[in-house]
Design a protein that fits this description.
Layout: H1 4-25, H2 39-46, H3 54-58, E1 63-66, H4 72-79, E2 84-88, H5 98-106, E3 112-115, E4 129-135, H6 144-152, E5 155-164, E6 181-183, E7 197-199, H7 201-210, E8 213-222, E9 236-244
Parallel strand pairs: 1-2, 1-4, 2-3, 4-5
Antiparallel strand pairs: 5-9, 6-7, 8-9
Helix pairs in contact: 1-2
Length: 247
């Protein structure tokens, strides 16, 4: 079993181990600065019933971590017994994927690293995944519908998170129940031009449905009162376990 509670609790020790390895490799290297393993805290709150066992979700098939940063999550899951691929793109990765490659080498890992631009025509590295981690990547995509639809054809389950907004950028217009997405200006959110579409709750559920997914578990975290697409104080996130209708 890969119980999500155990993964959450044990990820802290793995992070300390991995941080030590990173310091040994290069203490001044621009490692990805945000802790991706902290996602297990939210996943622990999200998943219910049999879905709390990631081994059952994966069903013995490979998993993939899309937008993997330095690959912390993939290397952790490998240690726990899952076959896991890293899928990311050097030009938009924090350090050009050099961090993930150095860790793979130092850890003598069997994790495969696939460099793919999801904003252009692409094919997934494998024809069949059991579970894909799609955390914090959706709002960085120019064409989220295409990526979600293509992913539904190769993966039975996915765990996703993305920024959502209850109000439009004017902080007055309530869009929560309207199936829409707000297109950010290149400098509007943290001056990060790779931020594109911020969905409303209803908009996220609609695009998941239209691209071939059923929502199994869903929760919202962060500013659940007056979230907006761009401000730091208005940051709200949705986490969801989704199941493909293609399988």
């Amino acid at each position: 079993m890969l119980n999500i509670t155990d993964l959450k609790d044990e990820s802290t020790a793995f992070k300390k181990k991995l941080d030590a390895v990173k310091r040994e490799i290069d203490p001044v290297f621009p490692w990805y600065p945000w802790g991706t393993l902290s996602n297990f805290i939210h996943l622990n709150g999200l998943l219910r019933g049999e879905a709390r066992d990631l081994q059952k979700l994966a069903r013995g098939l490979p998993a993939a971590d899309v937008g993997a940063a330095d690959g912390d999550l993939s290397f952790y899951l490998e240690e726990k017994g899952l076959i896991c691929d890293i899928v990311d793109y050097g030009p938009t990765n924090n350090n050009g994927l050099r961090g993930a490659r150095m860790l793979k080498d130092r850890l003598a890992s069997n994790v495969d690293i696939f460099e793919m631009n999801l904003d252009q025509a692409f094919g997934w590295p494998r024809k069949h995944y059991g579970l894909v981690f799609f955390l914090g990547i959706l709002y960085h995509l120019k064409n989220p519908f295409f990526v979600l639809e293509s992913l539904a054809k190769v993966s039975e389950y996915a765990l996703i998170s993305t920024r959502i907004a209850r109000f439009a950028a004017d902080k007055k217009t309530n869009i929560d129940a309207i199936p829409v997405a707000y297109l950010l200006h290149a400098s509007e959110a943290n001056n990060d031009a790779t931020n594109y579409w911020i969905f409303s709750d209803s908009g996220l559920r609609r695009i998941l449905d239209r691209s071939g997914w059923n929502v199994v578990d869903f929760m919202r975290v962060g500013n659940k009162t007056n979230s907006d697409p761009a401000s730091n104080e208005g940051d709200e996130r949705a986490f969801a376990l989704i199941k493909s209708r293609y399988f």
